[in-house]
Amino acid sequence: MAYYEMQESNLPNEEGKRILFPRMKLSGQTSLEEIAQNISHAGTFTPGDVKGLVQSLVEEIAGAMASGRSVKIDGLGIFTPALGLREGFDRETGNDDDVQRNAASLCVNAIRFKADKGLVMRTDTACRLERAPEKFRQSSSSHTPEERLRMAQDYLDAHPFMTIDDYCALTGLLRYTASRELKQWKDDQATGITTSGRGTHKVYVKR
Fold first, then answer.
1. What is the span of the domain harbouring residue 133?
2. 53 lies in a domain?
3. Which residues pair with 2 in a beta bridge?
4. 81: how many CB neighbours lie within 10 A of its CB?
5. Rounded to 5 degrees, what are φ and ψ at 26?
6. Is pTM, for the whole model, over 0.85?
7. Residue 120 domain-assigned (yes or no)
Protein backbone atom coordinates (compact mmCIF):
# COMPACT_ATOMS: atom_id res chain seq x y z
CA MET A 1 0.00 0.00 0.00
CA ALA A 2 1.26 3.47 -0.91
CA TYR A 3 -0.14 6.79 0.27
CA TYR A 4 -0.71 9.89 -1.83
CA GLU A 5 -1.56 13.48 -1.06
CA MET A 6 -2.84 16.37 -3.12
CA GLN A 7 -0.13 19.02 -3.23
CA GLU A 8 -0.56 22.64 -4.25
CA SER A 9 1.38 23.81 -7.27
CA ASN A 10 3.84 26.67 -6.81
CA LEU A 11 2.11 28.55 -9.63
CA PRO A 12 -1.64 29.22 -9.99
CA ASN A 13 -3.52 28.50 -13.19
CA GLU A 14 -4.45 31.13 -15.78
CA GLU A 15 -7.46 32.16 -13.69
CA GLY A 16 -5.35 32.71 -10.61
CA LYS A 17 -6.79 29.71 -8.79
CA ARG A 18 -4.68 27.19 -6.96
CA ILE A 19 -3.97 23.85 -8.63
CA LEU A 20 -3.64 20.59 -6.74
CA PHE A 21 -1.80 17.59 -8.13
CA PRO A 22 -1.28 14.09 -6.67
CA ARG A 23 2.06 13.21 -5.12
CA MET A 24 3.07 9.86 -3.70
CA LYS A 25 4.34 10.01 -0.12
CA LEU A 26 7.58 8.09 0.06
CA SER A 27 7.93 6.10 3.27
CA GLY A 28 11.55 5.08 2.88
CA GLN A 29 14.17 3.82 0.45
CA THR A 30 14.83 0.26 -0.66
CA SER A 31 18.50 -0.72 -0.69
CA LEU A 32 20.37 -3.08 -3.00
CA GLU A 33 20.78 -5.38 -0.01
CA GLU A 34 17.00 -5.72 0.34
CA ILE A 35 16.54 -6.26 -3.38
CA ALA A 36 19.27 -8.91 -3.41
CA GLN A 37 17.64 -10.72 -0.49
CA ASN A 38 14.21 -10.68 -2.17
CA ILE A 39 15.60 -12.02 -5.46
CA SER A 40 17.55 -14.76 -3.70
CA HIS A 41 14.41 -15.92 -1.88
CA ALA A 42 12.54 -16.19 -5.18
CA GLY A 43 15.26 -18.00 -7.16
CA THR A 44 18.60 -19.76 -7.08
CA PHE A 45 20.84 -16.68 -6.95
CA THR A 46 22.56 -15.80 -3.68
CA PRO A 47 22.45 -12.19 -2.45
CA GLY A 48 26.15 -11.96 -3.33
CA ASP A 49 25.44 -13.13 -6.89
CA VAL A 50 22.79 -10.44 -7.31
CA LYS A 51 24.94 -7.64 -5.87
CA GLY A 52 27.92 -8.71 -7.96
CA LEU A 53 25.83 -8.74 -11.12
CA VAL A 54 24.35 -5.32 -10.36
CA GLN A 55 27.83 -3.90 -9.73
CA SER A 56 29.05 -5.33 -13.04
CA LEU A 57 26.01 -3.82 -14.77
CA VAL A 58 26.74 -0.42 -13.22
CA GLU A 59 30.35 -0.57 -14.42
CA GLU A 60 29.26 -1.48 -17.96
CA ILE A 61 26.68 1.31 -18.07
CA ALA A 62 29.24 3.84 -16.82
CA GLY A 63 31.82 2.67 -19.35
CA ALA A 64 29.39 2.91 -22.26
CA MET A 65 28.27 6.41 -21.28
CA ALA A 66 31.88 7.50 -20.77
CA SER A 67 32.50 6.60 -24.40
CA GLY A 68 29.71 8.91 -25.52
CA ARG A 69 26.79 6.51 -25.81
CA SER A 70 23.41 6.29 -24.18
CA VAL A 71 22.42 2.96 -22.66
CA LYS A 72 19.05 1.31 -23.20
CA ILE A 73 18.01 -1.60 -20.99
CA ASP A 74 14.72 -3.09 -22.10
CA GLY A 75 12.22 -3.09 -19.29
CA LEU A 76 14.20 -0.55 -17.28
CA GLY A 77 14.91 2.56 -19.34
CA ILE A 78 17.48 4.73 -21.09
CA PHE A 79 20.49 6.28 -19.35
CA THR A 80 22.06 9.36 -20.98
CA PRO A 81 25.11 11.28 -19.69
CA ALA A 82 24.91 15.07 -19.31
CA LEU A 83 27.84 17.48 -19.26
CA GLY A 84 28.42 20.53 -17.11
CA LEU A 85 31.20 22.89 -16.11
CA ARG A 86 33.52 22.02 -13.27
CA GLU A 87 33.26 24.30 -10.25
CA GLY A 88 35.10 27.57 -10.74
CA PHE A 89 34.63 27.78 -14.52
CA ASP A 90 32.27 30.21 -16.26
CA ARG A 91 30.19 29.52 -19.33
CA GLU A 92 31.38 30.60 -22.77
CA THR A 93 29.75 33.76 -24.05
CA GLY A 94 30.27 33.02 -27.73
CA ASN A 95 32.31 36.15 -28.22
CA ASP A 96 35.39 35.75 -30.44
CA ASP A 97 37.69 37.25 -27.81
CA ASP A 98 36.32 35.12 -24.98
CA VAL A 99 38.20 32.15 -23.54
CA GLN A 100 36.79 28.89 -24.84
CA ARG A 101 36.06 26.03 -22.51
CA ASN A 102 38.28 22.98 -23.05
CA ALA A 103 37.78 19.39 -21.94
CA ALA A 104 39.59 20.02 -18.65
CA SER A 105 36.85 22.45 -17.61
CA LEU A 106 34.02 19.99 -18.31
CA CYS A 107 32.69 16.97 -16.46
CA VAL A 108 29.82 14.50 -16.53
CA ASN A 109 27.69 16.03 -13.78
CA ALA A 110 24.43 14.15 -14.20
CA ILE A 111 22.84 11.05 -15.68
CA ARG A 112 19.43 11.51 -17.27
CA PHE A 113 17.11 8.55 -16.92
CA LYS A 114 13.96 7.92 -18.94
CA ALA A 115 11.98 5.01 -17.59
CA ASP A 116 10.83 2.29 -19.96
CA LYS A 117 7.04 2.35 -20.46
CA GLY A 118 6.95 -1.27 -19.36
CA LEU A 119 8.51 -0.33 -16.01
CA VAL A 120 5.94 2.42 -15.55
CA MET A 121 3.09 0.03 -16.37
CA ARG A 122 4.38 -2.71 -14.05
CA THR A 123 4.74 -0.20 -11.22
CA ASP A 124 1.23 1.12 -11.84
CA THR A 125 -0.26 -2.40 -11.99
CA ALA A 126 1.34 -3.36 -8.66
CA CYS A 127 0.55 -0.05 -6.95
CA ARG A 128 -2.38 0.17 -4.54
CA LEU A 129 -3.01 3.76 -3.53
CA GLU A 130 -4.76 5.21 -0.52
CA ARG A 131 -5.14 8.87 0.36
CA ALA A 132 -2.88 9.92 3.21
CA PRO A 133 -4.87 10.46 6.41
CA GLU A 134 -3.16 13.74 7.26
CA LYS A 135 -4.20 16.85 5.37
CA PHE A 136 -1.96 18.60 2.88
CA ARG A 137 0.42 21.19 4.30
CA GLN A 138 2.34 23.85 2.42
CA SER A 139 5.62 22.32 3.57
CA SER A 140 6.29 19.47 5.92
CA SER A 141 7.34 20.43 9.44
CA SER A 142 7.79 16.84 10.61
CA HIS A 143 11.59 17.24 10.57
CA THR A 144 13.82 19.92 12.03
CA PRO A 145 16.37 21.67 9.76
CA GLU A 146 19.12 19.66 11.47
CA GLU A 147 17.30 16.41 10.72
CA ARG A 148 16.78 17.44 7.09
CA LEU A 149 20.48 18.25 6.75
CA ARG A 150 21.39 14.81 8.07
CA MET A 151 18.92 13.24 5.61
CA ALA A 152 20.59 15.11 2.74
CA GLN A 153 24.07 14.08 3.90
CA ASP A 154 23.00 10.43 4.25
CA TYR A 155 21.43 10.54 0.77
CA LEU A 156 24.67 11.85 -0.75
CA ASP A 157 26.62 9.14 1.05
CA ALA A 158 24.59 6.60 -0.93
CA HIS A 159 24.11 8.50 -4.22
CA PRO A 160 26.47 10.47 -6.51
CA PHE A 161 24.20 13.51 -6.57
CA MET A 162 20.87 14.86 -5.35
CA THR A 163 18.32 17.00 -7.18
CA ILE A 164 15.86 19.45 -5.64
CA ASP A 165 13.09 16.95 -6.38
CA ASP A 166 15.03 14.27 -4.49
CA TYR A 167 15.27 16.60 -1.49
CA CYS A 168 11.55 17.39 -1.71
CA ALA A 169 10.76 13.66 -1.65
CA LEU A 170 13.09 13.09 1.30
CA THR A 171 11.90 15.95 3.47
CA GLY A 172 8.35 16.76 2.39
CA LEU A 173 9.29 20.36 1.61
CA LEU A 174 7.81 22.16 -1.36
CA ARG A 175 10.20 22.91 -4.19
CA TYR A 176 10.71 26.62 -3.42
CA THR A 177 11.40 25.97 0.26
CA ALA A 178 13.65 23.00 -0.57
CA SER A 179 15.62 25.11 -3.05
CA ARG A 180 16.21 27.87 -0.49
CA GLU A 181 17.29 25.39 2.17
CA LEU A 182 19.66 23.56 -0.18
CA LYS A 183 21.26 26.89 -1.07
CA GLN A 184 21.76 27.46 2.64
CA TRP A 185 23.45 24.06 2.99
CA LYS A 186 25.63 24.79 -0.05
CA ASP A 187 26.74 28.19 1.28
CA ASP A 188 27.80 26.64 4.61
CA GLN A 189 31.00 24.67 3.93
CA ALA A 190 30.60 22.79 7.21
CA THR A 191 27.63 20.85 5.76
CA GLY A 192 29.85 19.11 3.21
CA ILE A 193 27.34 19.88 0.45
CA THR A 194 28.02 21.84 -2.73
CA THR A 195 26.69 22.03 -6.28
CA SER A 196 27.74 20.76 -9.67
CA GLY A 197 26.48 22.14 -12.97
CA ARG A 198 24.38 25.22 -13.61
CA GLY A 199 20.83 26.23 -14.35
CA THR A 200 18.49 23.32 -15.01
CA HIS A 201 21.49 20.94 -14.86
CA LYS A 202 22.52 21.94 -11.32
CA VAL A 203 22.64 19.11 -8.81
CA TYR A 204 23.89 18.83 -5.25
CA VAL A 205 26.95 16.71 -4.47
CA LYS A 206 29.36 16.03 -1.61
CA ARG A 207 31.93 18.79 -1.21
1. 2-30+70-206
2. no
3. 129
4. 19
5. -75, 135
6. no
7. yes
